[in-house]
Design goal:
This protein is an all-alpha fold. 54% of the residues lie in helices and 0% in strands. It is extended and about 70 Å long.
Length: 113
Amino acid sequence: MKRKRLAELVREEAETLEEAPTREEKPGEAPPAQASPPGERPLPPYLTYVRKECRLRPDQLDALTALARKLNRERKGKGERITENTLIRWAVDMLLERYRVPREASEKAEELG
């Protein structure tokens, strides 16, 4: 039997995710791993995210790596592992939240005025 490559396995997992019904999530909240029948492993959280590439400067990547390592040491194995991608998703959530709130406030002011 021919062994599958990692890319093929990930593609198959992503296709099964697309077929599954979705639920609405709060910003900054990772979707829960899909419930699986007994005997099967749950789907890893990273397969529930949409892939988007981003180019970083070397100093940014070094700082992200150092911060992820520091936070992982401080958490002492409790909870999910923190990666550079986790920190990037967190930063995007903060950026979107910061610019979402003023826009909503100005829209409310226009409605009242």
